[in-house]
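Section 5: illustrative case.
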């Protein structure tokens, strides 16, 4: 086990994934991009429920829930939420009831010409993560928009109270100070695997993953740069979310809030907004597939990979650098986009 950065023994934890996840050198991808040396940190193959970054957070979030006597977990997400699917799988493993409140509404960048209506094709609404949620035994509540999700949550809580069940509600993406501990420990794991990494590239949604790596690297005194590619909002908003979570996690741990001088958020691959992949995203998905046999998704990792490729090709990342691409999972989402996937796979 890597040296703990701070003592986390007072935080109960349940075992959900396989650690450490592999750190793979990607020679053909490196050659194709023609610049920095690329390694991929395989948090997409960490074990439970098709895997993904939410498992690290859930080990702490569900650890606290179980320790507190919870028997029912409620959480939120978009229709194709990977967080919802991993929560469902973890609840199956732990024997907890899982209620997923999923919203169809897609975020939409103001002023863009992208379609504002939520997707309504069968693959998006019923395949991918949604089908797995049901396979893992979760109760799925589909809502049109955020207001309906709030009402639905209230109803589920009231129903649980009537049945004397003990409920814990987890935030979107599992991103709260407790969830941040998942990637705080991942920073120590990665440093142990390769201390010489110059930069970590990853997607950022609800910001818990980036916040965990950031506070972990700071506490370890590890001078690694963290480049987070926003998938859903402006770089300024995503960056503010990282700072807020790092501050809250530092307070929870009783350590000073670190200055995050090495954390950079980019919106270079954001495109029209959440769940809307650009042609560069599909190109990145094909490139990782054809050079390494690694599967990316169109919502998160495809965007982060497009940002990485763009930064490397434009010289923003020096050819001498060693870069870790944090693969955060998301495979089922690819099948939620089946109509595009079928076309784009031929490329
Ligand atoms: C949730 C998710 C992310 C984003 O992680 P955050 O901690 O929410 O920023 C990235 N990639 C995948 C595949 C995800 O499911």
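Designed sequence:
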């Amino acid at each position: 086990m890597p040296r703990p950065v701070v003592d986390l023994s007072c935080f109960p934890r349940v075992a959900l994934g396989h650690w450490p996840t592999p750190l793979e050198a990607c020679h053909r991808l490196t050659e194709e991009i023609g610049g920095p040396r690329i390694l991929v940190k395989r948090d997409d193959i960490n074990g439970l429920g098709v895997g993904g970054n939410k498992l690290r957070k859930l080990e702490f979030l569900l650890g606290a829930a179980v320790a507190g006597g919870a028997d029912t977990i409620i959480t939120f997400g978009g229709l194709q939420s990977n967080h919802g699917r991993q929560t469902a799988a973890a609840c199956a493993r732990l024997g907890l009831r899982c209620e997923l409140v999923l919203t169809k509404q897609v975020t939409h960048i103001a002023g863009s010409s992208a379609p504002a209506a939520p997707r309504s094709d069968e693959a998006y609404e019923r395949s991918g993560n949604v089908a797995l949620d049901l396979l893992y035994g979760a109760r799925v509540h589909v809502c049109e928009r955020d207001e309906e999700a709030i009402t639905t949550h209230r109803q589920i809580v009231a129903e649980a109270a009537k049945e004397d069940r003990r409920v814990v509600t987890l935030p979107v993406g599992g991103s709260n100070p407790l969830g941040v501990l998942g990637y705080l420990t991942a920073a120590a794991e990665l440093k142990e695997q390769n201390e010489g990494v110059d930069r970590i590239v990853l997607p950022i949604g609800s910001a818990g993953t980036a916040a965990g790596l950031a506070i972990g690297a700071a506490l370890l005194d590890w001078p690694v740069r963290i480049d987070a590619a926003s998938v859903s909002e402006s770089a300024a908003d995503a960056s503010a979310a990282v700072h807020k979570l790092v501050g809250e996690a530092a307070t929870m741990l009783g350590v000073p809030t670190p200055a995050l001088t090495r954390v950079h958020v980019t919106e270079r691959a954001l495109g029209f907004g959440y769940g809307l992949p650009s042609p560069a995203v599909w190109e990145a998905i094909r490139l990782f597939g054809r050079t390494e046999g690694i599967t990316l998704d169109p919502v998160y990792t495809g965007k982060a990979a497009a940002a990485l490729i763009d930064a490397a090709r434009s010289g923003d990342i020096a050819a001498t650098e060693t870069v870790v691409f944090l693969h955060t999972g998301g495979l089922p989402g690819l099948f939620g986009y089946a109509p595009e996937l079928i076309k784009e796979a031929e490329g």
